[in-house]
């Protein structure tokens, strides 16, 4: 499957007076994916998003959205994008419905279209029950939903969400992450975060920005593969063979360094779990071997505790 790039960012440079916030940032966003812009505070995530959404102009560089050059036709590009800024500038003394009608009017909607979109979007983000409430009385999680509704009212195909869970409590974070994942089914999404766990949970691909530069770009698997020289795999097998025999078999596969038994379980199916250290990602070889040996694969995965170290090594070495 070839991924279709819907946003192309090329050599983006942004200087604020003497401060260089972006020093030549390039990345692509593929149609339908949830892309995470990950980086420590001050890396340049918000600046990239503000330029993408035409709130700021770049010092140099080029952005194309759906083939349209942002500098040539910012109005058309803006119509394709929905933007949730980091601190949503909501009018706290307005009633939710009135605020969204106001946003719709700013977008040039007629009354009927506005009412229709408002109802649709409210249902999508789960605010139908609070449309009559004053924004300032809502919890932060609900305010963030109202912010999302604002971003989606004009039915954009791309959503740009700047630190969408910052300032929320743990329950609200889970709810908003789930909501973003749902929105990702029908939209291309770019979100920024300084939280590794968040990006890992929500995103299909990650672009790591550090000091105004892209230091890594890939799927989680690709990034982990790039940094981790040793691959840690977890293999669970149901088999009539002894654990010793299985350990020996696994240990005999090319590039496998060590095999240890970590766990045996009786339920729901009797199986033994092995931890395998290898010089490469040998999951395919293990699956083929298991099939040939007549073992049933209960689980086969890479241990994924490595993102933290990837992030550290990438942002330290840059
Ligand atoms: P992030 O979103 O990754 O935290 P930002 O894009 O907000 O990072 O900031 C990138 C860099 O640009 C930081 O060093 C920040 O201090 C600087 N910066 C951001 N906005 C301004 C501004 N309006 N004036 C001067 N410097 C700025």
Search tags:
six-stranded mixed beta sheet; single chain; Rossmann fold; alpha/beta; four-stranded antiparallel beta sheet; binds adenosine-5'-diphosphate
Condensed summary:
The chain has 318 residues and is an alpha/beta fold. 36% of the residues lie in helices and 31% in strands. It has two domains: 5-225, Rossmann fold, CATH 3.40.50.300; 230-304, Alpha-Beta Plaits (2-Layer Sandwich).
Describe the structure.
With 318 residues, the protein is α/β, with parallel strands linked by helices. The chain has two domains: 221 residues, Rossmann fold (3-Layer(aba) Sandwich), CATH 3.40.50; 75 residues, Alpha-Beta Plaits (2-Layer Sandwich), CATH 3.30.70. It is built from eleven helices and 14 strands. Strand 1 and strand 2 form a beta hairpin. Helix 4 crosses helix 5, helix 5 packs parallel to helix 6 and helix 8 packs across helix 11. 36% of the residues are buried. The model has no long low-confidence stretch (mean pLDDT 90). Adenosine-5'-diphosphate (ADP) binds next to strand 2 and helix 1.
List the helices and strands and how they pair.
Layout: E1 5-16, E2 19-30, E3 34-38, H1 45-52, E4 60-65, E5 68-69, H2 74-80, E6 81-84, H3 96-106, H4 111-125, H5 140-152, E7 158-162, H6 170-183, E8 188-193, H7 196-202, E9 205-210, E10 213-218, H8 220-227, E11 231-238, H9 243-251, E12 256-265, E13 271-278, H10 283-293, E14 296-302, H11 307-317
Parallel strand pairs: 3-8, 3-9, 6-7, 7-8
Antiparallel strand pairs: 1-2, 1-4, 4-5, 9-10, 11-13, 11-14, 12-13
Helix pairs in contact: 3-4, 4-5, 5-6, 8-11
């Amino acid at each position: 499957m070839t991924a279709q790039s819907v946003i192309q960012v090329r050599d983006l440079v942004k200087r604020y007076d003497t401060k260089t916030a972006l020093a030549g940032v390039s990345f692509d966003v593929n149609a339908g994916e949830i892309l995470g812009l990950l980086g420590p505070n001050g890396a340049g995530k918000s600046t990239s998003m503000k330029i993408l959404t035409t709130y700021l102009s770049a010092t140099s560089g080029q952005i194309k959205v759906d083939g349209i050059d942002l500098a040539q036709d910012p109005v058309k590009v803006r119509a394709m994008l929905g933007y949730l800024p980091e601190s949503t500038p909501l009018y706290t003394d307005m009633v939710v419905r009135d605020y969204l009608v106001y946003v719709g009017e700013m977008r040039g909607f007629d009354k009927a279209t506005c009412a229709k979109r408002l109802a649709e979007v409210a249902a999508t983000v789960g605010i139908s029950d609070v449309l009559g409430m004053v924004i300032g009385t809502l919890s932060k999680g609900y305010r963030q939903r109202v912010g999302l509704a604002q971003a989606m009212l004009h039915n954009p195909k791309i959503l740009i969400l700047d630190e969408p869970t910052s300032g929320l409590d743990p329950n609200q974070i889970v709810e908003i992450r789930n909501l973003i994942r749902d929105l990702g089914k029908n939209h291309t999404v770019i979100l920024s975060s300084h939280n590794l766990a968040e990006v890992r949970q929500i995103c299909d691909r990650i672009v790591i920005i550090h000091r105004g530069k892209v230091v890594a770009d890939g799927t989680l698997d690709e990034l982990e593969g790039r940094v981790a020289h040793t691959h840690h795999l977890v293999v669970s097998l149901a088999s009539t063979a002894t654990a010793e025999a299985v350990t020996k078999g696994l240990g005999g596969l090319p590039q496998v360094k060590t095999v240890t038994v970590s766990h045996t379980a009786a339920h729901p199916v009797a199986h033994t779990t092995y931890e395998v250290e290898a010089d490469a990602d040998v999951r395919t070889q293990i699956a083929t071997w298991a099939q040939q040996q007549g073992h049933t694969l209960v689980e086969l995965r890479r241990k994924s505790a490595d993102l933290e170290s990837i992030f550290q090594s990438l942002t330290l070495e840059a």
